[in-house]
Amino acid sequence: MKTLTVQKTALTGNYAVAYATKMAKPHVIAAYPITPQTSIVEKLAEFVEKGELNASFVNVESEFAAMSVVYGAAMAGARAFTATSSHGLLYMYEATWWTALSRAPVVMAVVTRTIGPPWNIHVEHNDILTLRDAGWIIAMAETVQETFDLTLQAFRIAESAALPTAVGVDGFVLSHSTEPVEMPPQEVVDKYLPPRRPDVPMLLRPGEPVTFGNLPSDNKIHARHKVAAVYEAQQEAKKVISQADEEYGRLTGRRYGGLVEWYRASDAKHIVVCAGAWCSDAKHAVDSLRARGVPVGLMRIRFVRPFPREEVAKLDQYETAVVYDRDITPVGGILGLEVKAALSRARVVNIVAGIAGVDFDSRHFYETIQNAIDGEYRDLVFVA
After folding, report:
1. At residue 199, does pLDDT exceed 70?
2. pLDDT of 201
3. DSSP 114
4. Were both Cys, which of 6, 154, 318, 333 would link to 271 (CB 3.0–4.6 Å)?
5. Residue 1 confidence (pLDDT)
6. What average pLDDT score do residues 147-152 get?
7. Please, which residues have CB within 8 angstroms of residue 287's CB and are 6 or more apart in sequence?
8. What are phi and psi of 375, to 5 degrees?
9. Closest by alpha carbon to 16, among 165, 142, 192?
10. pTM over 0.90
11. DSSP state, 205?
């Protein structure tokens, strides 16, 4: 019987994306450099150049072109990947809607970065969250290991749900930090990711003219299509995500809980809600507060889309929900607004912090969680 060996190595978050993508065996990669995601596509270019990855590597002239290339490739039946950050994502924004509403299973790594002005290359979540209404599945990694695992899961999820999937990797905090990573054998990945959708015919074929996205004969057709692609498909994707996570766990021993992860929440009276790499700092703060007898737990949102409404509704059992946003809108934080809309009983305190790359570590979490529980904060607080 053949023994499969797990490879243990040290990778940055960006290299974790690149190595996972290599193991997923994409057919097409579209690349345009932008800080802090550039080393993802640089490493993939190296794999292709060395003959370690059999893929068409397309050097495009812009991020809009990058999304257009992978959109077309996915519609023709290819496994397709790209990566971007910040203004690059905004530049491709129009094409992200075409990709989602066409149900094209593109995978994209978004290394999260502040949007200017002023010019800034540090972490923030406003960029990736611009996708939240476009019909994309949006995942947020906490660690470099999860970055690797989520990238592999993203290909499975995108192709099973027929929806484009974005993997959020916090800029510099994860993208350029090195952590130990376990990579499964290629045979395990091949079992988890069979060739793309063998039971579904390609949508585009040479010599068979067809039009996508042209004027509909009836606007009601367009309306029904949007409801199906933007809302109904997201609801169906919840089961796909859970199944993908469960099977990945069976094959690798690492299961993350599907849409959300609960941490020390079963006997808590207060709950912290957050997404992304800084959840590790929040967990340290929860541990410190627990050591002092404060009954607090944490819910980490792994998938912002589809929005885990059923899981979020469980927060009504707690006295206080302290929701952290690394993004900002004219009416508060995005997660804070969405969590509050799903609850009817719990007191929700929305803390907007860490924007523009401002440091926010476990000490800050500790202090602000305690202040929220003690009632020193109202419903919305900005911490800079």
Report:
1. no
2. 58
3. -
4. 318
5. 46
6. 98
7. 264
8. 85, 15
9. 142
10. yes
11. B
